[in-house]
Amino acid sequence: MTPPKTLAEIAANLQGYDPQALPVHDVLSFLSQLATPVTSLEDVPIFEALNRVVGVDVISPVNVPPHDNSAMDGYAFKGEQLQNQEALTLTVVGTALAGKAWQGSVKSNECVKIMTGAIMPAGLDTVVPQELCKIAADSVVIPASLLRAGDNRRLCGEDLKLNSAALTKGTQITPAAMGLLASLGLPKVKVFKRLKVAYFSTGDEILSLGEMPREGAVYDSNRYTVFGLLHKLGCEMLDMGVVQDDPVLLEQAFTKAAQGADAVITSGGVSVGEADFTKAMMKKLGDVVFWKIAMRPGRPMAVGKLTQGDRSAVLFGLPGNPVAVMVTFLAFVKPALLQMMGVTDAQRPMVRAKTQEVLRKKPGRTEYQRGIATRNLEGELQVITTGNQGSGVLSSMVQANCLIVLSHTQSTAQIGDWVDVLML
């Protein structure tokens, strides 16, 4: 296995790398090389597989469906009789129920009443829905030019064929994927081990819930935001609380986090002018770079690796402002963590929407504005901002259902312009 690259080696691959003015695309490229996917595997029951990542291709042990079957309630017959596209009268000679094969034989001008999911009787290939035909006591009349041969029949293996890949390595398991696995009769699935992420907030001004208010202090919201974001990803979490600006306490926190987690997320302590304790401890315990990213909100960020013995953990030092924490997590940390989890396609695609207001911007940085996206009467996606875009206005993230992403080189967007949107 190729040893992980050092931060200096990664930076050397980025043309014009400047940690004091780093474009967003360079941040993403850097992190894609830093985030090493997990390799350990484990078997988990299907009920515990949601959001886990498939560790090896899941090969279908059966055909799905296992037989040709009816797609609806109706009457099964030989489709070749439709060649003249004339009205067709058929005699009903039996009933095929789901879960049990009908054993009779069917001649021309005969049919079998059939239920949805029932196995198609031998020699029959077409089903007419019962609501589309005229039904008498022992016969049905199919109107002219209504069907083609093969209509309303599900083919054996139409969903999945025997020995085909049902889910590929690197797929994150959704509710639909859980159902797909169960349809194969598989009680367990082999997945990558869950990524363990430690997180804590830093700063003497940060209060934990339950503490009495004091002048100049604010209650910690970032830990709860980060918890929610990590929980949605399916990570195992280690909440380490609030750590004060004390070298001893910070060293203890970083050491414990590096020893017990695959990744460490902090908030606060990386901005210009803040106390140097957090930065100094990051440097002491690992290989860390401090960036000024050409973006808004969320300019300061620290990234690197913390090392303890033979263990190392990827470090993400996020800003302290609540909105900046969310934006940097969604823009950078989330795709990096997904890659570490083993997800093959970790970058979330953006969609395009028409802005319904002027979005003022100067080229030279990427801006993430909180937005509300809706569909107009023509079905086009349109977007407006939530209003105040201050990096401390966390209520705007509650209102938003998307981030409007204005790229590095982009200037002011006028009403009616198409813009990139990252749905939340």
Radius of gyration over C-alpha positions, nearest whole angstrom: 29 Å
Global structural class: alpha/beta
CATH architecture of the largest domain, by name, is 3-Layer(aba) Sandwich
Q: What are the segments in which pLDDT stays under 50 over at least 5 consecutive residues?
A: none
- Give the termini separation: 36 Å
Query: What does the largest sheet look like?
Result: 6 strands, mixed
Beta content comes to 25-35%
Average pLDDT: 93
Number of strands: 26
Bulk shape: elongated
Walk across the major sheet and give the strand order.
7-4-6-5-9-8
Total number of helices: 8
Helix proportion = 10-25%
Domain module count = 4
CATH superfamily of the largest domain: MoaB/Mog-like domain
CATH hierarchy, class of the largest domain? Alpha Beta
Q: What is the fold-level CATH name, i.e. the topology of the largest domain?
A: Molybdenum Cofactor Biosythetic Enzyme, Chain A
Would you kindly provide a written description of the structure presented here, covering whatever features stand out?
With 424 residues, the chain is an alpha/beta fold. Strands 7-4-6-5-9-8 form a 6-stranded mixed beta sheet, with no helix packed on it. A 6-stranded mixed beta sheet has the order 16-13-17-21-20-18, sandwiched between helices. It has a 5-stranded mixed beta barrel with strand order 22-24-23-25-26. The radius of gyration is 29 Å and the shape is elongated. It has 4 domains: 7-40 and 193-341, 3-Layer(aba) Sandwich (Molybdenum Cofactor Biosythetic Enzyme, Chain A); 43-59 and 158-192, Molybdopterin biosynthesis moea protein, domain 2 (Alpha-Beta Complex); 69-154, Molybdopterin biosynthesis moeA protein, domain 3, CATH 2.170.190; 351-423, Beta-clip. The relative contact order is 0.13. The chain has helices at 7-12, 24-34, 175-183, 222-233, 247-260, 277-285, 322-341, 395-399; strands spanning 41-45, 58-59, 69-70, 74-77, 88-96, 110-114, 126-129, 134-135, 139-142, 153-154, 165-167, 188-192, 196-202, 206-207, 218-219, 236-243, 263-267, 286-292, 295-296, 300-308, 311-318, 351-355, 366-375, 381-385, 402-406, 418-423.
